[in-house]
Amino acid sequence: MSEVILKISHLFIENFRGISAASVLLPDHAVLIGDNNVGKSTLLEALDLVMGPDRLSRQSPIDEHDFHLGQYLAGDARPDGSETAPRIIVEATVTGLSEEQQIHFRDYIEWWDVLKHAMSDASDPAELDLSATIPALRVTFIGSYNPQEDDFEGKTYYTRTIDENEKPEHFTKSDKQKCGFLYLRSLRTGARALSLERGSLLDIILRLKEIRPKMWESTLSELSNFDVASAPELGISGVLSSIDRALKKYVPREWGIQPHLRVSALTRRHLREVITAFIDTGTGSYSAPYFRQGTGTINLLLLAMLSQIAEDKQNVIFAMEEPETAIPPYAQKRIVHELRKLSAQTLFTSHSPYVLEEFTIEETVVLSRSSTGKMLQSTVTLPDSIKLKRYRQQFRTRFCESLLARRVLVAEGATEATALSSAARRLSELNPQSYSSLEALGISVLDAGSETQIVDLARLYAKLDKEVFAFCDKQSDDSKTAIEAVVKTLFMHDETGMENLVLKNTSQSALKRFASGLDWPPHIKANHPNLKDDPLAALAEFFGSAKGNWGLADYLAQCSETEMPQWIRDVCISLKRSCEPVIPSPHSEKFPK
Predict the structure, then answer these.
(1) What is the pTM of this model?
(2) How far apart are alpha carbons 68 and 194 in whole angstroms?
(3) Cβ atoms of 489 and 545 closer than 8 Å
(4) What is the 8-class DSSP label of residue 10?
(5) Which end of the chain has a smaller Cβ tally under 10 Å, C or N?
(6) What tens digit of pLDDT does each residue of 416-426 get?
C-alpha cells in the first residue's frame, strides 16, 4: 500500500446552497474545475463548515441563503415531497491520521477501505487486518432553523455517535484544529491576513508557534493616559475647559469634571481589528497598510504566510479559491508547486491553464451540476487515439478551455473553429435579438485537428457531462452516424470545405470589399492579375493557403447579416435557441397575444 497521508477522502453534502446532493471523492491533491456557478466554491465552503475551526466563532455559521433554494421551514415545497424542516448536512471523512491524531480521536475511529473508496463494513479485527483499510474519522455538520429562537444554528458532531444512536458528541474547535484544515478565499482573505483578528493568517502562525502576545494590557494602559488634541493651539482643549466651567455651575464635583478626549474605550477586540502590518512602498521610507498594496503583491504575501504555516505544521490541508488571481503565470505555477510540497493535501479551484498543468489527469476533478442541484463528479479519461504526451503538449491550446466550459463545440479543423466563432460574434453585434456570440452562450470551441478526431474528442467531453456539439464538412453516412451518437447536435454542411461554403453563399460586393483591403501575398497577385474585378479565384487560393490563420474568419468579421452565408446564420440561431431556451411566461396562456 502506498504511503498514507492526511487528507479528506470523501465529502457528502445535502441541501447546501446550490447543491441539493453531492458525494465527492478527493485525491491526495486536487484541482476542482468546471463552469462558473457549478458549485466549486460551495464545495469548499461546505468543507469549511464541517472542518474549519473559526466558523464556529460566529453567532450563527449559516443563514437563510445557505439552504438549497432558500427553503428552511417545515412545509416548504420540496422535490422529494418531504414536509419535515430541511437541514444542511455536510459529512467529511478524514484519513491518513497520524499516531497522535489517532490517540486523540481513539473513541471515534472507523475504517476506510482504500480499494472500495468507502467505509468498511468489517467488524472483526482479523478481517480488518486482511483488508486494505486505514483508520478514518467521520465528522458531520448539521444546520437547521430553530423556530423557537427564530434563528439558525449549526454544529459539528462525530458521525459515529450519530449513527450509533447515542447522544451526539460535538466535534469542537480544538478538535478541528487537530485536523489542520485551512480554507483561503483569495479575494476575501487579504484584508485581514496580517491583522491580529481571530483566525487571521498571522493569528494562526502565532498560535502554531505557541506565541501569545502579551501586549494588550500595556497597550491599553498607554492609550488610556494619552490625551487627544490637548495642545492649546489646536483649540479643542479651550472648548472642553468652557464645558467644564459650565458643569461646575450645575452639578457637584463628584458627578464629573474635566472632560478630555482619550482612546481608552478601546478593548482587546478593538485592538485585534485595528492593529495591522505596514509595509514600505517603493524606494522611500513611507509605509502603508499592507492591504493597500497591489492585489498581486497581497496574494504573494498571503502565500508566503501559507508556506510559513505549512512548515510549522506539516499535517495541514489547504483549500484555496483561484490562486491565479492577479498573479503572473510563472508565479501561479511556483505557488501551486510549493504548496503541494509543503502540505499533506491541497484542494484548489481554478480557471487558469497554468494552475491546471501542475495536476495530473487523476488529480483533475471535473464538477457539473444537474438541473435539480445534484453535483456530479467526473474524471478525464483519454481515448486511445489521444496519447498522454499529446494531451500534455497541447493542454493549454486545445484541451484546457473546453475542460473549464459547460458546453463544447468540436470543430473539424482550425478554419472551422475560427470562422464560426468570428461569424457568431459579428452576427451578435449586428442583430443581438437573433444571435449570440459563442462566448456568451458558454461554448468553448475545440479544434479537433481532423475529421477522424471528432468522435473521440466529443465522447471525451460528453463523458464529463458537458453539452457537446460538432461542426464539420460533409461526411460519409457512417461517420455522420458515429458523430451524431455522441453529440447533442451535429452541424454538417454539404460542401467539401468551409471555404467553398462561404465563397458560394456570399455576395460579390462583400468579396470585392474584402479583397480591396487585403495585403495580397506576391504569388497570389502573380497568379491572379484581375484581382479587382474578379476576386473569387484569388480569394479561394488565399483562404486555402491561410487555413488556421484567420483568413476566412477575418472575411466573415466584415460581412453584413445578409452577406453572411445562410447556413452559418442558421447554425448560430440554432445554437442560441439550444443554449438559451425560451421560457414561456406564466401568463402566456391566460393572455395570449
Answers:
(1) 0.79
(2) 35
(3) no
(4) E
(5) C
(6) 999 999 999 99
